[in-house]
Design brief:
The structure holds two protein chains of two kinds. Chain A has one domain. In chain A, 78% of the residues lie in helices and 0% in strands. Chain A contains eight helices and no strands. Chain A has helices spanning 2-20, 28-50, 55-81, 91-114, 118-146, 153-178, 181-206, 227-245. In chain A, helix 3 (55-81) runs antiparallel to helix 6. By secondary structure, chain B is an all-alpha fold. In chain B, 71% of the residues lie in helices and 0% in strands. Chain B has helices at 2-25, 29-32, 45-54, 58-66, 70-99, 115-141, 155-175. Chain B is elongated. The longest helix of chain B has 30 residues, at 70-99. Classes of the chains: A mainly alpha, B mainly alpha. At the A-B interface, helix 4, helix 5, helix 6 and helix 8 of A face helix 1, helix 2, helix 3, helix 5 and helix 6 of B.
Chain lengths: 247, 176
């Protein structure tokens, strides 16, 4: 309970700090997720104290919606990583959508459709969604490194916090699936709030102040250009190559 | 057993992420631009003219058929193949340099998801596929084969090229 309250307070602090530093417009999806998590947690506390008999079913609904809402953070991260590079600005989003859709169809959906009961379906869904998020994060890290996209403190912290959360969530869900619910119940109720609290702590530290993205000129040998010039150059490269290939 | 597998995945993922995160934050300029070729510009006419010479089979044919030096023609083809591979790799390096070019005015950066950004991503993707295929063909069959498929059947590619050329034309007309 104490860990849950800590996570809840950190979430609120992040929102307040974001409003004060005007970060909402820079990280719209991320702050939408934080506001959703804050309102959801508030609602869950209200239900817990006022309608305890409804709490278990409300908790699992909120749990499922949260798993889906967490993809907003992934989309935000993927948007931010390549933001300074006009030629591949949408690469992160494209990768996130493609991997989510592909794994959703071939890896996540079957466990939902063909599980023997509601509980295995729920834990299977949560586990496989976590694996999907972990794969997306790893791919984004790799591609960002390949293109020399330097992560600033804000985006780097966003990724690191979410990676810690996903790793702990993955381990928790694997435990929940492997052990019986009775055996795992005490750890499960501790691990999920702990994962979110750690994640919120990293986010609070990294997003406390707005840090500008590191200069990309240290990586690229070319000087900065506006996106129209880059678009023209891309077209020129393609037409030169096409000319050569169809000669 | 399944628990162990997933726990191993979680730990491996965290190690991978922390490792990549550390490297990404402390990235040195030399680490990411590792090409051995100085990236040329597509605006460089001499460099483009060089490609016409490299991929032109006329002189190899002339050596083999008219002068009757098939061995010399073969040596020329092998040399041209090496040059063609270097030329394509240099083109790829130049393109990668363009892709790594940052926005000059970050304050006016449009949000991800705009139509222009998707079109640019498509052009990047298309170039990467074409050049990889061209390299493969040249490495396997040599520089004198015409085996590359056209992308003209993809509606988005035609639209994106037209949309990028139109403002450029308008700009060039207005500047005269």
């Amino acid at each position: 309970m104490a860990i849950s309250v800590c996570a809840f307070l950190l979430d609120g602090l992040l929102i307040l700090r974001g409003a004060r530093n005007r970060l909402f417009s820079l990280f719209p999806l991320f702050y939408s997720y934080l506001i959703f998590a804050f309102c959801g947690s508030t609602g869950m506390y209200v239900i817990y104290w006022l309608f305890p008999h409804v709490y278990p079913s409300a908790y699992w609904i909120y749990f499922l919606v949260t798993i889906l809402a967490e993809f907003m953070v992934l989309v935000e991260i993927s948007d931010q990583i390549f933001r300074p590079l006009p030629a591949i600005r949408n690469l992160g989003r494209a990768l996130t959508i493609f991997i989510s859709a592909a794994l959703g169809l071939v890896y996540v959906l079957p466990v939902v459709l063909w599980s023997p009961g509601r509980r295995p379906a729920l834990f299977g869904f949560a586990l496989r969604a976590s694996v999907t998020k972990a794969i997306i994060l790893a791919v984004l890290f790799y591609v960002a490194r390949h293109y020399g996209s330097q992560l600033g403190r804000n985006v780097g912290g966003l990724m690191l916090g979410f990676s810690i959360y996903v790793a702990l969530h993955l381990a928790s869900m694997a435990g929940a699936k492997a052990f019986s619910s009775v055996l795992f119940a005490s750890i499960f109720w501790l691990m999920l709030p702990l994962a979110f609290a750690l994640c919120a702590l990293v986010w609070t530290i990294s997003l406390w102040e707005l840090a500008p993205m590191p200069s990309m000129n240290t990586i690229s040998t070319a000087p900065g250009r506006d996106s129209d010039a880059v678009a023209l150059e891309l077209t020129r490269f393609n037409s030169e190559l096409s000319k050569l290939l169809h000669r | 057993m399944i628990m162990l597998i997933y726990a191993a995945i979680a730990i491996a993922f965290l190690i991978l992420v922390l490792g990549l995160f550390r490297k990404t934050l402390s990235l040195e300029p030399d680490e990411c631009v590792t090409d051995n070729y100085s990236p040329p510009s597509t605006a460089n006419g001499r460099w483009l003219h060089l490609s016409e010479r490299i991929f032109d089979p006329t002189d190899a044919r002339w050596l083999a058929e008219e002068l009757g030096f098939p061995k010399l023609a073969n040596a020329l083809i092998i040399d041209r193949k090496r040059l063609a591979i270097r030329w394509l790799q240099a083109l790829q390096a130049a393109f990668d340099d363009l892709v790594r070019t940052p926005e000059s005015s970050p304050s006016e950066v449009p949000g991800a998801g705009s139509a222009g950004s998707w079109q640019m991503l498509w052009l990047t993707f298309r170039f990467k596929i074409s050049i990889s295929y061209a390299l493969l063909v040249v490495k396997l069959f040599g520089p004198y084969y015409r085996l590359i498929p056209s992308f003209s059947w993809v509606p988005m590619s035609r639209r994106s090229e037209r949309s990028f050329r139109r403002p450029a034309l308008a700009n060039s007309r207005s500047s005269h």
